[in-house]
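Milestone M4 deliverable, item 7.
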Amino acid sequence: MSTQPLEQTIAATRGVLVNVTPDQLGQPTPCASWDVAALINHIVGGQHFFVAGLEGEPPTGEQPDFAAGDFVAAFDDASSACLSGFQAEGAMEKMYKLPFGEMPGAAFMGLACTDTFQHAWDLAKATGQSTDLVPEVAEALLAQSRRFIQESFRGPEGAPFGPEQTAPADAAPADQLAAFLGRTV
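Output delivered:
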């Protein structure tokens, strides 16, 4: 299995991160409990979570405040390690034990793509950037999400996903994915 979708997701996320300005860090995001700074911390921290999972280590819990420094460089370092981990020989076939269950590497990479991509959309929306991110990746992630996200994964704050929302008929694929994952488009 190719890591191309993850590569494209990382590039799109970086493209959003480089356009975030310091005066935007306190702005609200589509993630109700996070402002832009907290969302950036989650995006960069998520890359570290994926690396830890690939290395068979538990997540560290405490993360530095990436948003207080050069968060683009922090994302570059962490996403490079994440991508290298998924590109390692046998990584896609290997089973990984994660805090929420066990899954094969290909599914874990799908989770990494979806999480990173959706939060790039959240950050773009919060900072007034285009949310029309990599249409072909968004379409693939939407199809994958429709197959694997069960209604039991949806709920109020704290559940992995909110209730599915309606996207306009002419919405870009990334906006359709966001609506499916519970965001108001």
